[in-house]
Amino acid sequence: MLANSGYGFQYIWPDFPWFASKARPVFAVASGALSMLFLVSFVGSSRRVKKIVVWVNVIMWIYIAIILSFNNKGYQTKWWMYIQYLIPVITLLYVLLVLFFLIRKSWQGNRFAQFYLAGALILITTTIMQASIQLGNFKEWQYFFSNFGLATGYVAESIILTAGLVYRFNQYRKEKEKLLVEMNQRQQEHIRILVKVQEAERSQVANQLHDVAGSLLSAAKLNLSALREKGNISEVAVLHAAKAEEAVGMVSDMVRNLSHALSPVMLEKVGFRTSLEKVVAIVNASGRINIQVIILGFDKYETALNNYYTSLYSVVYELLNNIVKHAGAKHVLVQVTEHADCFSLIVEDDGSGIDPGQLDEKDSMGMTAIQAKIDYFRGYVAFNKNQPTGLIVTIEIPIIRDV
């Protein structure tokens, strides 16, 4: 635009009048070369088209180098005339190539090509109008188009391309949001599989303990009882058999309680309340800690919420296990509440607590499985310091019927 309007000759290089004849072909070809690079970046194209554009650019810049190599004597040769004649041919070929590319892409539904095509058509229209005025047509518009024709076209094209860039940014933002949603869905699916695998492993171990180990221990206890009741052994042997029977009975009870703690095999039969009270009783049996449990609701077992009951039970077990292993607490309060739209769990202890640095190390603190279950159900968990010592864990899990 500077070259065609003569501004370059008047203001940028007034001391070099010989450059005026070079300015128009140099800027015309250079703008075409650069605009083709911008075009394929703006619209998007295949690798093959990009290679073609690169080669066309190389040819155009060679052409520019040839123009700049001419001196004053070179202007008097026929080669300079041939170069001048090539300028409208190159411009026409450039326009046809760009229009073909944009129309093809627009027909394929490329929104960016449609924006670019609209801007290019306006620029081409103003250019044709200015050329027509120079040929003596549209005299009533002569002043406007002769002075502001190309400028108007460039400004209109810039506005349309800016609108296209805004549209492109919005599309990028929507695609990014869509990708984040898909990543979140995949993460939820991975968490669901993780929870399912963990529950399956717990159930398998619990069943082995309950069915195999429990049955063997019961058989051993039965044999010891039968041996003691026969009466054909010494009193010392009877005493030892009674002690062995008692020890086997204790181990059998521990194995059964452990199987119930790992996976609540009786959850559907005795309900969530009884199962939770049992796991608390198991931890209290050690005598090293006193756990008080408050259960509000859970009067009826809903089969549709079995995943919630199982996971909530496992969360309580993991938290109590974490308190016993890491916190060194003496007293714990567990409060589980069933609301119409969510389950809430509050666990308070008077142990050593967890500082903010340790909260970032959930994997080492046994919190990974708990966090995975809460994330799966789109729940909420908060860790707060208890006064004077200890930790308060607050968990809220919304009830979503399709989970």
Helix and strand topology:
Layout: H1 2-5, H2 7-12, H3 20-43, H4 47-69, H5 78-107, H6 111-134, H7 142-230, H8 235-262, H9 267-284, E1 290-296, H10 306-327, E2 331-338, E3 342-349, H11 356-359, H12 368-376, E4 380-385, E5 391-398
Parallel strand pairs: 1-2
Antiparallel strand pairs: 2-3, 3-5, 4-5
Q: How would you characterize this protein structure?
A:
The protein has 403 residues and is an alpha+beta fold. It has two domains: 2-182, no CATH class; 268-403, 2-Layer Sandwich (Heat Shock Protein 90). The protein is 70% helix and 9% strand. The protein contains twelve helices and five strands. The chain has helices at 2-5, 7-12, 20-43, 47-69, 78-107, 111-134, 142-230, 235-262, 267-284, 306-327, 356-359, 368-376, and strands at residues 290-296, 331-338, 342-349, 380-385, 391-398. The protein has a five-stranded mixed beta sheet, covered by helices on one side. Helix 10 links the parallel strand 1 (290-296) and strand 2 (331-338). Helix 3 (20-43) runs antiparallel to helix 4 (47-69) and helix 5 runs antiparallel to helix 6. It starts with a helix and ends in a 5-residue tail after the last strand. The model has no long low-confidence stretch (mean pLDDT 76).
Quick summary of this structure?
With 403 residues, this protein is an alpha+beta fold. The chain has helices spanning 2-5, 7-12, 20-43, 47-69, 78-107, 111-134, 142-230, 235-262, 267-284, 306-327, 356-359, 368-376, and strands spanning 290-296, 331-338, 342-349, 380-385, 391-398.
